[in-house]
Structure formats: structure tokens, C-alpha cells
Amino acid sequence: MKLNNLPKMEWKFSARAEQLKSSMIREILKITQRPEVISFAGGLPSTDTFPVERMRAAFDSVLANSGKSALQYGPTDGYLPLREYIAASLSKDGTTIEADQILMTSGSQQGLDLLGKVLLDEGSKALVESPSYLGALQAFSVYRPEFVAVEMDENGLIPSSVAAKGAGARLLYCLPNFQNPTGLTLSQQRRTELVKTCANLGIPLLEDDPYGALCYRGEPMSKMLNMNPEGVIYMGSFSKVLTPGIRLGYVVAPRTLTRKLEQAKQATDLHTAQLTQMAVYEVIKDGFLEQHIPTIRALYSSQCDVMLDALNKFFPKGVTWTKPDGGMFIWVKLPQHIDSMALATESIAQNVAFVPGVPFYAGAPETNTMRLSFVTVSPAKIYEGIERLGKLIASKM
Amino acid sequence: MKLNNLPKMEWKFSARAEQLKSSMIREILKITQRPEVISFAGGLPSTDTFPVERMRAAFDSVLANSGKSALQYGPTDGYLPLREYIAASLSKDGTTIEADQILMTSGSQQGLDLLGKVLLDEGSKALVESPSYLGALQAFSVYRPEFVAVEMDENGLIPSSVAAKGAGARLLYCLPNFQNPTGLTLSQQRRTELVKTCANLGIPLLEDDPYGALCYRGEPMSKMLNMNPEGVIYMGSFSKVLTPGIRLGYVVAPRTLTRKLEQAKQATDLHTAQLTQMAVYEVIKDGFLEQHIPTIRALYSSQCDVMLDALNKFFPKGVTWTKPDGGMFIWVKLPQHIDSMALATESIAQNVAFVPGVPFYAGAPETNTMRLSFVTVSPAKIYEGIERLGKLIASKM
């Protein structure tokens, strides 16, 4: 029975909670679920790439053959055969990765949270690209570090900027392949330099690689993990090569750190579902990804070409954009005086959505930037949406 | 290619990570996976209670009918029909709970982590039962509160102890039904007192209820949530009534707090798998739990009776234990001079495992206590293991 006349609760949140905000992207996504909106805002993979029937068969087979163990509590570090598979796939260029260096996580996002938990104190220096992946900034910001933005150019993050600003930093967060949000790729030479710079300064180098397999042009670059497995922490995910909703990612780290991350995960959610891990292993163990990933590449690559073509056709002179070699995003720079936040509001009123660039900056933002995703909109709608957006931009010039 | 001659990384962890330790229970569990060990150490439900075929049919049906949406990114707060189901099941005693007060979590453990994240600053006062659930102590300790232990007796936590020690506390953590580790239940009168005491002091009251449905004797008590939905935060889980390995729990809170927890979850792991939530909803939506839970109760209740009988038969005079009305655990008090940590080592050497009581205390531990789980060991092995343990204890008296 409800008790009456109790004093009203005055909620007091932790300092870290006070600064938490809902991601602008997720707020925009809520608006853009209206079917009439052409949305370039999403970071969602295309459901056309989901191997639904294969996943269905795998869940069924695991539950039929190993149901009880798949549904029981499992080990915190994850399902061993899956970790062994991942370790083998990452062992190259003369570097051996072993299963006990791998912690399975509930999506790559959890890897970011655990790394923040384990590496960052309040006020710790955390180096991030400028702009950087918003989800990483959110995950780390809970632990209240001092973010230091490192500069980028068309070849990605600039190692000399790390050398200049990095002393004493607790981590450098880097998304080297087809970065979210810019679509830029860190060049091969920069990778070598960056690994050396971080090792010399004693900075753990976080290599976040959700899009690495989605390469449309050129040769895939070396992983920094393979250049220095004692100093690089690698994050991978099944979100972009299988499906994101299962929430399955992994962190590869030197064992000292892996064990600490494992303890942190135990306190956070005990372990990631065995059933999911066993089903994913069932799906991929016989080389499925080697056939499947090229089909995703083919789809996204043609979508990317369509959007680049539409941008060429419909965006006015004075606007520039990146030409990504892979991934899901194109980054647009408008003339300096155009504020993309204000533009986003007007654009949504015209049923075209994108994400303004500001939230991706930990440091001083470039207010004239925007992120476009090309993966989930049909070619006809890409042309239609980019044309409408181009006209809106032209009206501001 | 691996780079040579790089300086060795000196790992520096955050202050919160430095104090993280692996749970003693999980360490003991690793040892006790040897088949010859009779283990009363586990907190695992019996796989005999898992409705494997029903889960299998549900996963199959969801993937067949809604595969793409089940495998895509989903909302942070969780799958709405499931939240509506939970809200309806918790609306009683004149209190209405609504779906927007509920956040689905990756197991109840994640609810604890998120509540720590959002409510605790370093040095915040956190009131916990003495002894308390180890997983909660672990989850909260990451946020470095000052734990204050509140006293318990055979009727559970003592509200006057909260009144005496509680001023300024950021939370009180309470496990009112068949507590882990003691098996004790908070009496009806104490519940009313406790809700009033917390409301008067402005302390958020965390009601963790993983075992509530597993009631073997007497009438289920009222939920404190229903006495004061504006001041009580309720945590539920599907781990003990369906299966734990899917990692599915929920937090019910006043909306102000639910929205803050949702933001924290977004930064932590985006959301819990839609597929899992949809499959669980498929399993339970037509009232399956109402038929299924009595079968779990019947099994565990008879196991509990067997262990109580074995304790009566084989434990020496001078040893006392709780007689739980539900749940999974019996709490044993040995004579003061017997250290249960040392006993655990000797016991494991004789192939019988239990968890010593010390890690369950945030304050001064009672070193002569131990936790016994009765759910996963066969009756014959319960008698055998308790007899062996009884002899070992008798040899110390």
C-alpha cells in the first residue's frame, strides 16, 4: 500500500552524472524516424546487409545443441572459441595475438567505457582527435578527464601534435580507418610515427577499428596493434560486419591491462551473453565473413559513389567534403559563416536530416561542419536529399 | 610489421581501477569446476529450470518475423512491449508503474553499476547491509564511496540503524527478499519503517529483488517500490526466473532518475540487445512465468529442505544457520574462533566448496561465517558434502 505524506525526494546526482547529456545524434534520430524524412544522420548499418537467416540458424543450433550452457552464467572474459578465432584473425605481420589478451564486450561502446574506467582519473589528460567519435567522448567524459584535442589533416591525426601536447597523457584515442565522423584514414607512415611517438611518451594508444573491414579503395593499412602489441589497445566490433543489435565487440590489450579490464567488466555487468557469443562463433567459424564482407563493401561503396556524385552535382562551390576510402561517413565543410546547427533545424523542416559537426569536437568546434551517412538511404533518395540540402546551403551563400 | 626497440609501457591505472579485485566467488568457482568437487559455493541457478525449448522457439520466432529490427541498433531504454509488461506486473497495492520509469539493463549487475555511476561521488556515504551482496559492493566500490554498514538481525536490516547512521547518505542498498548471502527476509513492519526512514532522511532506497519470486514459505511481502514509488528504486532480473546467461534485468525508478540512468547507459553500452528483449517478451507475454516459477520453487524448496535436514544431521552443536523462506542461500555461523577462510582452503582440499563470509562485509567482517547455496547440488551430494564439512568443522571445535 502506498504510504502517504512522505517528504518529496530531492535528487542529488554525482558530479559525473550532472554533465551527462543525451547524444545529439540519438535525439536527431528520434525525429528522423518519420518516414518522410531523408536521413543522412544515422550511424546505423543497412539492415539489407544483415545475414538474418544465418543468424537464425546459428541461434537455433546453439540452443538445440548447447542450450543449457549457452543460457547459464559464463566467463567474464568471454567464449573461448570466439576469442581464439579473433586472436588468429589479428595475428599477422609477425605479431601473435593470443586469446587471453582479448576481452569480449557488450559492443565496442562498452570497451570505451571500461577503458575510461580503468585508465582515467578526474583531470587525467586524454588525447582525442579533433573531431572525434562522439560515443568515445561520451564514454570517457563520465570519468571527467581533461580532453586535449590533437590536430588532423587529410592524412588523419598528426603525430607531431601528439608529441607537442601528449606528455603525461593517460591515453590517445584514435579511429584510424574511415573515421567517424570524417571518413578520413590515417596514412601508413603516420601509423608508424604515431606508434613510436606514443611508445616514447608512454601513452597507451587506443586503436578503435569498427569500420576497418569496410574498405572500398586502396589496400587496407597495417593495424597499429601489430606494430606494438605491448602498447596498443585494439577495439573491434561485429556491429558493422554482422549486425549491431546483438551488442558484441572486443578489446585486445596487453595482458596486464586485459586482466584489469576483466575485473572492471565483472563489476559492471558480470559478462556478455554466452548465447550471443556462441551464435556469432557458429556464424563465422567456417569463414563466412570472408564471403559476406565483400557484399557489404559492394553495397556501401556504390552508395558512397552515389553520394559523392550527388554532392558534385548539387552542392554549391565553396563547400568541400572528404572522399572516404571506406566506412559510412562523408564530412562536409561549409563556408565559415554558415552555422551547421542552425542549418540542421532548417533542413529537418524540409525533411532532410544530418548531424552538425559541433558535438564531435572535444576542443574548439568548427561550427561549419556536418556529417553525412551514405549507407541506409536509397540512391534516388540520396540524390533528392542532397539536392534539397544543396539548395538550402546555396541560399545562405 | 612489429617495430623494434620501443620503450616498455609502464601501465598507470586509475585510482578506482587500482582497488578492483576479482571476486573471490568467481575465483572459487574456477577451482570448483572440477567434477569431483561438491560445490555449495555457486550462485548459479540450476540449469534444470531453464526453459530451453521455449527460449529456442522464441528466438526463432523473433528472428523469423522481425529479424532485421531485432538485429538493428535499438532504443537505450529498452523494448517497449517488455517494459509495458514489467510495468503492469509491478503495478499493485494501489501504485501504478509506467513503462517510462523502466530502464532495461544487461543484467541486474548493470543496474548496480549505473546507479553507482549516477548517484555516487568519491567519498559519498553509501549505506549497505552487513553482510551485503558482494556484486553490489563491487559495482559501487568502483565509484569510491564511503561504505557505511547498517546492522541486521533475523528480521533483516534494522531501520533504526539507518536512522542513526544515514544522514547525508546518497543511497541505501537493500536486498529484502531471501538476501544474498544470508537468506534473510526483511519483515513487513520493517519495510514500512525503512521506507519512512529513508524518505525522511532523503535517502534513495535501492530495493534489489532478484529472488523475490522464489518464495517457498509464507506470503510474499509487499514491495517497498509500491509503498513509495517516488523514493524507491527497484531492481529486477530474469536471471533467476528464466535464465541468467542472457543478461537481462531492469531498473524501475522515478522518471527524473530513469532519464539520468538512460543517459549513463547510452554512454556505457548504447542499449541492451533487442533480440534478447524481444525473445524474452515472446516467452513470457502469455503468462508463462505464472506456470514456470512454481516449478522452480518446488525444486529449490525441496533442495533447501534437504540441506536444512543435512545441516541438522551433520553439523555439530554450536554452529547455527538461517532457515530461509526462499532464494538460494543458507548462512552459517561457526563458533567465533573458527576462521571460515582457512576452513574453505581445507574444505576444498577435501573436495567440498563454500564461500567464506568475509568478502560480503563492507564494514568489520564476521570471520566465522559462510554461505551455502543449495540449488545446484543433488540431494545425495548435499548429504555427502554437508557430512564431510560437518566433520571438518567438528575437528576444529
What does this structure look like?
The structure is a homodimer of 397-residue chains. Chain A is of the alpha/beta class and 397 residues long. The first copy, chain A, folds into 2 domains: 18-49 and 290-394, Aspartate Aminotransferase, domain 1 (Alpha-Beta Complex); 53-286, Aspartate Aminotransferase, domain 2. In chain A, 42% of the residues lie in helices and 14% in strands. The first copy, chain A, is built from 14 helices and 15 strands. Chain A has helices at residues 15-18, 24-31, 52-71, 80-90, 107-119, 134-141, 159-165, 188-201, 224-227, 255-269, 274-284, 288-314, 340-349, 379-394, and strands spanning 38-39, 102-105, 125-129, 146-150, 152-153, 156-157, 171-174, 205-208, 232-237, 249-252, 320-321, 329-333, 352-353, 355-356, 369-373. In chain A, strands 2-10-9-8-7-3-4 form a 7-stranded mixed β-sheet, sandwiched between helices. Chain A has a 4-stranded antiparallel β-sheet with strand order 11-12-15-14. In chain A, strands 1-13 form a two-stranded parallel ribbon. In chain A, a hairpin with a 2-residue loop joins strand 5 and strand 6. In chain A, helix 5 (107-119) packs across helix 10 (255-269) and helix 7 (159-165) runs parallel beside helix 8 (188-201). The first copy, chain A, is globular, with a radius of gyration of 22 Å. The N and C termini of chain A lie far apart (64 Å). The mean pLDDT of chain A is 95. At the A-B interface, helix 1, helix 3, helix 5, helix 6 and helix 8 of A face helix 1, helix 3, helix 5, helix 6 and helix 8 of B. Chains A, B: One of its GO terms (molecular function) is pyridoxal phosphate binding. Chains A, B: Pfam families: Aminotran_1_2. Chains A, B: Its cofactor is pyridoxal 5'-phosphate.
